[in-house]
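note to self — DONT lose this again. spent like an hour looking for the file last time. sequence + predicted structure for the chain T wanted, 265 res
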Amino acid sequence: MDSQHRRVEDVELAAFADFGDAAAGLEPLSLHHEIIDQSLIMTAPGDPHFLINRVIGLGVGTPAKRETISHFRQAFEEANISRYFVHMMDDAEPAELKTWLAEENLVPQRRWMKFVHKGGLAPDPNSDLDVRRVDREHGDAFGEIVAASFDMGAASVPALARLTERPKWHIFVGFADGEPAAAGALFIDQGVGWCDFGATSPNFRRRGGQRAMLAARIKYARDLGCDLIATETGESVEGDPQHSYHNIQWAGFEESYLRENYAPG
């Protein structure tokens, strides 16, 4: 596997493992996470959204085992989660992996494009939002904006809010006349900055919120010495306006690779 691709996959896995730690003990989310075969398995019966019900890193750090797929398939079924994503790289091991997924009725979905930043900073976003790195005081506002934008359940808000207390997460909120309007998260590990949870409240769209969030996180990651910054969004498909895709490219990210997603058929 390309060393840069591996670093990007590793930082996302680390970010969501830390998210799982942050959510520990929160009800009714009931998020459980475990690492098997160096793959992260997350189940959250309290919010059956695929962003937090996922398998990350399957076949990346070490060849996956057939029983691992049966294990997480059963775990999702027992948690009554019918929609979840299993991420898989083209060169994931072993070669039989796709066959094993098919045997468990896991079928390909729309892929996600991974982006890496070209270097330097983003252009001026020309936004009137006041962007700040926030602490727990604005944790709920961050969680509410993200959950609403991604159609996540209310049970995920406290877990998202707790990210403001995690040392590797850096949370940003854009304020419009003092009111939280946009949000974005940056996770930093091993010199890699991972941009996730970028969202804008519907009442404040078309004010450059997403671009402002990207610009702020890129600058912060550079200031902390990151030599690699990455993010992702759904692959470009005909008929989709791809607003996030274009904003990511505007900020100086370039397409790196497509990662497959599998879900129950």
